[in-house]
Amino acid sequence: MTETKVSIKDRLDYESIQNQLAYQRTDMSTSRTEMAQERTEMAQERTEMAQERTEMAQFRTELAIERTSLSNSQTFLAYFRSAIAAFAAGIGMFEFVSQPFIMKIGIVFMAVAPVVLIVGIAHFFIVKKKIDKWEADELHNGSHDSSQGKSNE
Fold first, then answer.
1. pTM of this prediction?
2. Cβ pair 134, 61 in contact under 8 A
3. Residues in CB range of 105: below 8 A, 6 or more apart
4. Looking at residue 142, what DSSP letter applies?
């Protein structure tokens, strides 16, 4: 009679263990599913963050193009100011100083002023053409490749 009780008890223990294992397997399966969902959500978040970084990079590129364009205009104005200053100094030396050597220097200043202005205009349009080409490449490609930028300069 004790053997029957032991075997029933063993059988109940065995079934209990089997039930516990089945529960643990179900629990593990649920955990794996939850982990897979979390990984998917994390991948989506990384994708969104990458898109935001791309948009920010494109915006920074647009700002860089604008800054470069403004800098080019400022450089042209510096050439223009220098030409005007050289011409004004030449006129001042030529008209208001009676020494022949200073008058010759004034003539040189007046002759150099248009050359400075022409160099400034040429520089402005050369750089503007590069900026426009870079901007067109940016609009066409959607992103800036640093090796392309170096080869275009």
1. 0.61
2. no
3. 90, 93
4. S
